[in-house]
Amino acid sequence: MPSDETSYDVLVIGGGNAALCAAISARREGARVLVLEASDAFWRGGNTRHTRNMRCAHDAATESLSGPYTEEEFFEDLMRVTKGRTDQDLARHMIRESKTMLTWIEEQGVRWQPSLGGTLSLGRTNSFFLGGGRAMLNALYRTAETLGVEIRYEAEVTALEIADGMFLSATVNGETLRAKALVAAAGGFESNIEWLKRYWGEAAENFLIRGTRNNKGTILRLLLDAGVQEVGDPTQCHAVAIDARAPKYDGGIITRLDCVVFGIVVNKHAQRFYDEGEDIWPKRYAIWGRLVAAQPDQIAYIIFDASSLKLFMPSLFPPISASTIEGLAEKLGLEPAALRETVDGFNAAVQPGTFDDKVLDDCRTDGLDPPKTHWARRIEEAPFYAYPVRPGITFTYLGTRVNEEAQILMADGRPSANMFAAGEIMAGNVLGEGYAAGIGMTIGGVFGRIAGREAARTARGNRAQGTIAAKEATDV
User: Fold this and answer.
1) Using N-to-C axis directions, what is the helix angle for 439-475 and 17-28, rounded to 10°?
2) Could you give the 3-state DSSP secondary structure of residue 60?
3) What is the pTM of this model?
4) By CB distance 3.0 to 4.6 Å, which of 135, 158, 441, 463 could disulfide with 54?
5) Right CATH number for 5-236+397-465 from 3.40.50.2300, 3.30.460.80, 3.40.50.300, 3.50.50.60?
């Protein structure tokens, strides 16, 4: 039976990429580390289970990367996708630190697959995990356990004792756990539909949660209630258009649709509502969840023809098809005449160009509102296809403010004496809006490693202070 009160050097709350990087980093600094994972062992790892890659700056091609990706280019990409809504100093710090992450992660047992080609256009910027996110997680867990990190499953934290910015203890299944330092790496609140509804209203009922069902925001709420400074817009999130036939939770990567750029997207009234060719897909795919969320009934349909069928990675579910546009509309529950009018108007606006899905090509529309600025081709080759899509929420951006040491900042601006954060729970420092493929894993890996290291050093300092105090008391 566990004791009523157990003490550790570093307590890590969470079980995904950020948490494991923090735990390993702290343990390598000599700390006694406990990881608390709310799920059971099968579902461990939160959203990391569904990931595939990490975006890091690097100066030259490697076995897993086809060319260099400089710090400045990374920063420019981040500024573009966030529209400047980022803590620039913290973002540059993260990007600098990311240059050593690929090697560090590999040293923890993670393996990379050869440089990726194909339609995602990520072979130069992103390294892909051999075996995917679950294999990556398994490697980190093996390393953590080999190093002596203690891991508890089905260990949901229900209370945090925090006094004047200092973490004292956590309550888990009725047990009080004390630690000299805390790393919060427990994700956002995307699985808490009631919390989402505070900002989105009833529309949130139609959201699908493509990641874990366990990210209810409990730790975030406890920290904010204890006087931690918040960061980020609660309505901003990583939200992509996913197959509307996906399950409510844990649909993962196989329900995401990468075919927006190859066709048009219409709402329930068969009307287009945004430029499908605005930019290279990895820099724009994460805006489409929010765009669909703003449409009536939070539903939309990606329409394309036979010429585009094999240009993208398909969903788990097959596309809906028909030999005519009107027949496709009927299967989708759309007004046939309205969809025909939209398709005809789009086709008439398409200008001649050279199609190339790997660059910003010159295939565009003219005189159409909204325009399609790249990859615009007439939809005319039967059979015609469609995917129904809904907003797929991956993680939220409201979180805890941190500094370059991953220290949590209190509402008055003071750094906490012994609390650190990493991963989705602090992603809003870097992501004010928008997303670039793989950057969530960058945030988790970089700040996880920093948080673990700094938490261990803080704990070591606290141990030293405690030893001195005890000796002084004995001398007296």
Assistant:
1) 40
2) coil
3) 0.87
4) 441
5) 3.50.50.60
